[in-house]
Design goal:
single chain, 151 residues, alpha/beta, D-tyrosyl-trna(Tyr) Deacylase, Chain: A, six-stranded mixed β-sheet, two-stranded antiparallel sheet, globular
Amino acid sequence: MRAVLQRVARCVVSVEGCPPSSIGRGLLLLLGFTKHDRIEDLDKLLSKIVNLRLFVDEQGKMNRSLLEVGGGLMVVSQFTLYADCSRGRRPSFEQAAPPAVAEGLYKAFLAKAEALPLQVSKGFFGARMAVELLNDGPVTIVLEVPPEEQE
């Protein structure tokens, strides 16, 4: 599982023909799954994301978590996080989870996130999306639950 977090002042995700999904201050989460990922590991990743101290306190230090500031979480599934560009000019996505597996993990992650006391918005699984964001900082963090931790 790979997560790219971006602290945002606002974020809007849209797909043609659908109402847009949006958050104000919070985190944009680009979430990718491998064929080895397990549903049991979602809690660990979610807890890390919502408790990371990425928001500034009164002294201007990154000392507040998403839960503490009451920010929003925009969750977007992105299989391209597992692109392998080591050979040739076209990325290989061999390590990415098949769509049916990834969609199950994505929906399970969303259900867990929606149970928390924060605003959760989402992208559109498998769709071509337009993601607009106003990066705050910028602050970008990459988290990973490597396969060796899952065995």
